[in-house]
Amino acid sequence: MIPKRLAKIINEINNILLPQVCFGCNAQLFRGESILCAVCRHEMPLTDHNFLDENTVDRIFYGRIAIKKAAAFVFFTKNGIVKNLLHSLKYKNQEQIGGFFGDWYGAQLRKEMGLGKIDVVIPVPLHPKKLKKRGYNQVALFAQKIAEAIGAEYRDDLLLKTLNTKTQTKKDRLLRWENSKEAFLVNPVVKTHFGHVLLVDDVITTGATIESCAKALQQLKPKDISVLSMAVVP
Questions:
Q1: Half-sphere exposure of 220 (CA within 13 A, CB side)
Q2: H/E element holding 105?
């Protein structure tokens, strides 16, 4: 076992030789900073959504699917800190960014308690081929941290993605809806019914993916389905 003092020295040397940089602005991080520098953290475009008042994410699903409550942590724009973070999370093997979002938002949710009792947290799944290629589901660690914060069960085996669709970031609303339609189903081996389900995604744009997942989850006859995402496109 390496003594704590020696481990600290090794860590300091690593920081000098391989300094950590901010995923938002690429500036060097200082002691106590992680993922984002203090400036970028302060400039994060937080939505201030809660689970009591109506918000823009709620309105996305009106008339489409029965969602009890929906919210997102930050706003996503074509350029900026959030885009840099999510791009690194999805395409640059930086899975820890999902945990960073989950710890931050989870602490906020634990204080507000507006969600009520959540029985299970479910991440939007990846197709097995895409999961194998990427090595992880970019939503998983975020969802796990949220589940820990609110004292809920985490399950990533309830939903399956059956269509290996290409990235939808540049597709219009109709194409997104067509690609997501019937792309998800409930794992046939699951027989459990849940009370309040929290469905978690990375970015909500048109809501097509969440709508498809929620329709599939209705087979489990949950009492309520709520939705949470890292980001929403305003």
A1: 28
A2: helix 96-112
Q: Which residues contact 208 (CB under 8 A, 6 or more apart)?
A: 173, 176, 177, 179, 180, 181
**Weakest-pLDDT range from 15-19, 23-27, 40-44:** 15-19
Query: DSSP secondary-structure letter at 113?
Result: -
Q: Check if the beta carbon of residue 227 is closer than 8 Å to that of residue 201.
A: yes
Torsion of CA 126, 118, 113, 234, to 10 degrees: 30
Whole-number Å distance between alpha carbons of 220 and 70: 20
Burial of residue 41 (CB within 10 Å: 0-12, 13-18, 19+) is middle
Helix (H, G, I), strand (E, B) or coil at 81: helix
- The owner of tokens 């009106």 is 62
Indicate the pTM of the whole model: 0.85
Q: List residues bridging with 72 in a β-sheet.
A: 229
Q: How far is CA 212 from CA 24, 55, 92, 97, in A?
A: 32, 21, 27, 26
CA separation for the pair 99, 148 (Å, rounded): 11
- Give the pLDDT confidence of 48-105 residue by residue, as tens digits: 998 889 999 999 999 999 999 999 999 999 889 999 999 999 999 999 999 999 999 9
**pLDDT score for 116:** 87
